[in-house]
Fold DUF1428 family protein.
Amino acid sequence: MTYVDGFLLAVPKANIEAYKAMARAAGAVWKEHGAIDYVECIGDDVPYGELTSFPRAVQASDDEIVIFAWVTYESRERRDEIVAKVMADERLKGDDWKDVFDGKRMIYGGFQAVVEL
């Protein structure tokens, strides 16, 4: 079964094009280092719920869009190897992303797949 890193974050609407460019560059690096898939999705039908919701989870404001993203790997072990390479990759060094979105509100985690159809 594959292993998945999942991400949820809010991006100001004014920064969406910059975010897309950043995501394309990051995705190319992840894939180059061995990720199976790299997917970034812009929220299209994500209402602000009364108790819980994607926007609430990342404290999205009215001028922000929720991003849901994931990276898949062959295994947890392979993921650990790939992420170490990605984090050391000079192309992703620097603080440029801090101007695009607030990383403090990003939610992320690793998940072991249990059903794959």
